[in-house]
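Minutes, methods subgroup
Present: GH (chair), OT, SY

1. OT presented the first of two proteins processed in the latest run. Sequence and structure tokens recorded below as shown on screen.
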Amino acid sequence: MSDRNKLIDLLRTASILVVLATHFAIAANVTTEATPIPSAWMLAKVFNKLWHLLNHNGLYGVTVFFVLSGFLITNSILAGQDDNFHADLKDFYRKRVARICPLLILHVMLGVLFLVGPFPDSNIYRLCFKTQWCKIDLGFFVSIATFTFNWLKVALGQPSGFFGMHWDILWSLAIEEQFYFFYPLVLNVARKRIRLQYFLAMVICVGVFSRWLFIHAMPANHMAVYMTSFSGFDLIAMGVLSCLFSQRASTLPRTMRRAAALAAIAAATLLYVFTSTESNLDMIYAPPTLGASIATLIACSSSSTSLKKIPSILTYPGQLSYGLYLLHPVVLFVLWPLLNGIAPLKFLLFAAGSLAVAHISYRLLEAPARKAILSRTETKQQAG
């Protein structure tokens, strides 16, 4: 995990905390076993307000993840290349398999274990693994294996499209992998920076239009607003554009870059505080605006030397964000008997437990499996 972009990891940390807090708050509401800080406590209103701000817009955390993903993938593919873009397809796809599949396989195996195991039919169990509305069949697992799970959820709508938190989080992974299946092919066809930029601009326009279209065509199906592939592709495209512009942004005056970064932070903060992912109207303009703000921040700040001063304690959760994202529903279920009480305080225990599990997963599964897959494919290529 050396030579990492600390700004990216800091944004990942903030995003995963928002997702975890939102899911914890949902569990607390469903089970009614967690309470706010008592009013008699000093600064109780302040802490409860901060807790509400942290947990009320979890979808925006996924919005930021999409943008960061586009930036990182593009930075990895185009490192050292000039304006004549080219992606090594075999190298790209094997790296995606090595990155995504080991933990995803574990995730599905754990989910099946909790489906068939002798676990009590409690509110927290249904919330995490199998809601009373869903039907888990062969088509369900096929959609996960083919990364089309988001479209299954959209097609089923509400409430049938809610399978349980452990499964439902896979919608965002499906959108990412759909984009990355075609992305290296697009790079090899476009070749030139200007052509790629035109294509990405078109993707962004389609994404914004699709939100408006689905809101008006399917107003009762809130999932259709943000879970269609087009509503994620535009955010990933913004991350790609951020990477393309970051080198040119580094040539701008330092004061201009700082001003743009501060404006981006202000815009993102205002959007997070004053809009809601529960509002169909807000979901038309807020995600792309937030995505553009984060893309601007990254493009203008990635080359800043001051980023090295960010403490590792703030960036390490971001380094483990994939494991935190996939494994936290299991941690939530296992620790839930210990999590009743004052919600903001118990959330810290949940977050710490999730971080510990993600750390173990990275050290014992993800890193060794990725190394083994990559070394094995390299050996085959050399032998061939």
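2. SY then presented the second protein from the same run.
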Amino acid sequence: MWECAAIIAGALGAVALIAWCGVLLHPARPWDLKPVGEDAEYPPDPARWPDVAVLIPARNEADTIPASLPTVLWQDYPGRFHVFLVDDRSSDGTAEVALEVAEARSAGGRLTVVKGGPLPEGWVGKVWALQQGAAACGLKFAEFSPAGSDVASDKAYVTAASGATERPAKEGTGKDAVGESLGERRNIGKQLEGPPGATAVVGMEGSRPPADFAPEYLLLTDADIVHSADSLRRLVAESEAGRLALNSRTARLRCRSFAEKLLIPPFVFFFNLLYPMRRVEDPESRVAAAAGGCILLARSALEAIGSFRRIRDAIIDDISLAKAVKGVGMPIRLRMSRSDVRSIREYGTVGSVWKMVRRSAFAELRYSWLRLVAAELAMLVVFLVPPALTLLGIALPIVWSGSVETSVPKWWAMVYLVEGLLTWAAMHAAYLPAVAFYGLSQAWAVSLPLAGLMYAAMTADSALACFGRGRARGWR
């Protein structure tokens, strides 16, 4: 029995070593967290700067908006842009805070707050908010939905997408200039009224863009994302130069607390292993991904996929959107951001990171219990086996030096020690770029086995949560 166990342990060590060597030798080099957007040469300015609509879905984000919204409102963008913040039934005064922030920064003329309607059946909260934001900036989904989609009868569409008629609400002065008073801008939005069966009302507050505003791009960003002053300018210039349908940045996540230092770099590392960025940009590869905190989406791409309705039930909406766009043959790009795009969301405890991962981990496995079992076994092998074999290789000679007798050859201890150290070294080497990216001490690379096992537990917990309540359909 001991001999069989010894052979199995050695075989698992060999599998783990091969796996980590495979990561290091992967042709797309996903472990190096590159390309980085800021490292690329600045693209040339386009001949004409297109109109851009910025969509910010927000639910109970009153605490983050004062820091993030001004960075969007005051973008150094040569063309015209307008911000549509979709308040998805917040209970903390998100809409009011947004309007006050815009007024305080003399940027009220660039902000429209869309009052989100009730969540329709079959939609995920964030995607529904994006759909309403797209309708608010003038996109008429019924005009370009795929044949046979029966858009007009879909209760999930806002009234503007269902053949709605516009009924202007009481307006202020009608000025669009930045800096007009908050009182002049309150309640100058439109109430959209549609036929029976459509969403009843979409209310808007703040300023509306110029009448001829026709966005060619939509910047999808989150309420916790802070942008550098030239973030939008660079994204648009890249998209125009490369004819990109989707151009995304992985926001630099906050990494200050102990929980963040332990779990955030592995989170980004694992994401890049699953979706190598060089493969995302390769038109010959089927790999597609985006980061929901910052996506510049061409209007033509949204038209090609039939609006956000295409991904209406996607918990992992950013990945689903990228797959939909690349699936119709349009070019996409994903790059890391070192400083231009940052998240200010705090994950001060292990529990807060756990909650974030728990929402979508099982969805990443397509709600498959078979994939779950395979993923859990794989994570146990690659994260638990290397340190376990290292400790076993050290402990066995000590045990054998006593009175314990075993039929296992004593050279197995050396095999375990060598396998464990080599595998751990390969793991360490693969993870070091992620640690360095976040400016942490190299000592943190030793913690990857612990973090990996914690993510395995989070994934299992995500599956159990879905088993208990069914697939999530609310905000994520």
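Chair's summary of item 2: The chain has two domains: 2-29+364-469, 37-251+291-345.
Next meeting: continue with the remaining queue.
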